[in-house]
Write a structure and sequence with these properties.
alpha+beta; Jelly Rolls; FAD/NAD(P)-binding domain; 5-stranded antiparallel beta sheet; about 25% strand; globular
Length: about 600
């Protein structure tokens, strides 16, 4: 628990994520860059979650005014706080306050919880969820001054939090620091560690796997271990589909003696020396402790390109026009259309009837517009016309309104509701499964032409792609009912490589696999920054194929190999191509020792 008192006695600030007992409340770090903090979310699918609680000390007893920083999360869609599903109460020293919180204003702000009497010494604060539908709390503050002007701007609060929790330097230094624990980041860190590099993996969630984790359960697509580099993809083969065997990755990580993993750790910035990253600044999302990790090389596997963005790396975002790279599949005019994001949800059939409430604040459906389903599929996708970084909380919350509203309609009003009587909505993930955001620029921008018939045989080709150019668009029928607010998608597939592994009808013409060059896997303007994942250096059209997890995992293995060559040759990523190319070719032919090889060697 971290509690800060200004001056001698007041005010007292308690960060919600620092609550000692979080009960059923969930630490949500997804929107850190937008609000400068993480927060607690009461996500119970309509069932109030258990109280979060914490102890805090008071030097001067007496009357205090208490405030919680919160928001009405459906305020983006309704005027004058017409609906407020995410409401909660505070309880102080066991006494529940009657003022509802989370029912006013769409923006994060301090809301009054009323007056309390605090004792000298230990006191107790609780968050009491009243609905199970998305109550959220950023912080709680107590002040003796009724007219206290409390800082609310994201910028000023960020400064205050940095002051309250000053950063400390971690005792170790690393050869490679990987930020982002999805398939790409895992593959990169394991690849480097198995070659003897002191490796650090920073992950802002309590689990590994990213979209492949138990939180999103998106299967790994894209062929691996393909000629001419049949050893690239061996690590992906070990770790893929983590959500089916989450204990497997824990076992693998535990046996990597050169790898340290820091869970619940959010990268918040970098320290630079010119165009070289020296350290990454992080914050533990449960304790607010700030830690600085120093390294020689860094890998951005965040998906959103956050590490590169902090460092000032050049990046692209959105759909390039056809004239930008001469790609026939690119739009002729500018467009703000992007891939959407997905939330996993599923239901379970019980041997008794299960009720679900009618929800006027959710998206409303009819017999024609509803989706008859018992779980999500890949095409439950929304946010096509939103910024997938800046608008991420809006996108997530809109999809929650869709899922809850559709399920409520199926249970209570649809002509087929008898089919759903015994079905219970058992899980809705609060974690966005993103597809698209920033792409960091490398020495080469990989393009549509590099995938299709006129592709170039790059001498540093190292990652073999086997997935179609898979563009997603809003579903036309969904557009009829929800224009600009679609939550269903269709795909358009171009260039089906031989060995294409998704179960759709193959066209008559099949194309050869394509080859992504190493020069797409390091930054053009940041000297010691690698990238692997959907944020590599490619056009938006090429990204539509290269983004799948099997392919991004192989990228991770490659940068792990390259990091080893950088370390032994005391050089930067670009030098691997320019000065040590023969060593690089040999390394990717041999690949990374996989777990069975290690056992044999021992």
């Amino acid at each position: 628990m971290c509690v800060f008192q200004f001056g001698k006695a007041q005010p007292i600030l308690i960060e919600a994520e620092n609550f000692e007992n979080k009960g059923g409340w969930f630490v949500d770090p997804q929107f850190y860059d937008q609000m400068g903090s993480v927060y607690l979310l009461a996500h119970g699918n309509g069932t109030p979650v258990k109280n979060a609680s914490t102890q805090f000390k008071v030097e001067k007893p007496g009357k205090y005014f208490v405030y919680a920083r919160t928001r009405n999360w459906v305020g983006d869609w309704f005027k004058d706080d017409e609906y407020a599903p995410g409401i909660f109460h505070l309880a102080i020293n066991g006494k529940e306050l009657t003022q509802s919180l989370g029912n006013k204003g769409k923006d994060w702000a301090w809301q009054s919880g009323g007056e309390v009497i605090l004792d000298a010494g230990d006191n107790k604060c609780e968050l009491i969820d009243l609905s199970g539908f998305g109550a959220r709390c950023d912080a709680v503050i107590f002040t003796t001054n009724k007219d206290e002007k409390i800082i609310n701007s994201t910028k000023e609060l960020s400064k205050l939090r940095q002051h309250l929790f000053p950063a400390t330097k971690y005792k170790k230094e690393y050869d490679l620091i990987v930020v982002g624990g999805g398939i790409a980041g895992l593959s990169a860190s394991i690849s480097a560690a198995r070659q003897g590099l002191k490796t650090c993996l920073i992950q802002n969630r309590p689990v590994l796997g990213g979209n492949n984790s138990v939180e999103n359960s998106i299967v790994v697509s894209g062929k691996i271990m393909q000629p001419p580099y049949k050893n690239i993809g061996a690590i992906v083969n070990e770790i893929e589909n983590i959500f089916r065997e989450p204990e497997k990755i824990d076992h693998i990580i535990a046996n990597e003696k050169n790898l340290e993993v820091f869970y619940n750790t959010q990268a918040t910035g970098v320290l630079m020396d010119g165009s070289t990253i020296v350290s990454v600044v992080t914050k533990n999302i449960e304790t607010s402790e700030q830690i600085i990790f120093k390294g020689n090389l860094f890998a951005d596997c965040t998906g959103d390109g956050n590490l590169g963005f902090y460092a000032g790396a050049k990046f692209m975002m959105g759909r390039e026009t056809r004239s930008t790279f001469g790609e026939s599949l690119a739009p002729e005019i500018e467009s703000d259309l992007s891939y959407g994001s997905t939330l996993k949800w599923n239901s379970k059939k019980e041997n008794h009837e299960v009720d679900f409430p009618k929800l006027p604040w959710a998206v409303q459906f009819t017999n024609l517009s509803c989706i008859k389903a018992f779980s999500n599929s890949w095409n439950w996708e929304t946010g096509f016309y939103k910024n997938q970084i800046n608008d991420a909380e809006y996108i997530r919350d809109y999809m929650l309104r869709v899922i809850y509203g559709n399920w409520s309609y199926l249970k209570n009003a649809d002509s087929t509701k008898q089919q759903y009587l015994n079905w219970d909505l058992i899980y809705v993930s609060p974690i966005l499964g993103k597809r698209e955001s920033r792409r960091l620029v490398g020495d080469i921008v990989f393009k549509q032409q590099d995938i299709e018939g006129e592709w170039k045989k790059y001498d540093d080709a190292c990652v073999i792609g086997t997935y179609a150019i898979d563009q997603h668009f809003p579903d036309i029928e969904n557009t009829v009912y929800f224009p600009k607010q679609e939550f269903r998608s269709n795909f358009k597939h171009d260039h089906f490589p031989i060995g294409y592994d998704v179960e759709f009808k193959y066209p008559e013409k099949k194309n050869p696999p394509y080859y992504i060059p190493y020069r797409c896997l390091y930054s053009k303007n940041i000297n010691n920054l690698f990238m692997a994942g959907r944020n590599i250096s490619c056009s938006r059209i090429a990204f539509c194929s290269s983004r799948v997890q099997g392919t991004t995992g192989m990228m991770g293995e490659i940068i792990g190999l390259a990091a080893y060559l950088c370390t032994v040759n005391n050089c930067n990523p670009r030098d691997v191509y320019q000065k040590y190319f023969d060593q690089f070719k040999t390394a990717i032919e041999l690949g990374v020792p996989h777990i069975n090889q290690q056992k044999l060697n021992n």
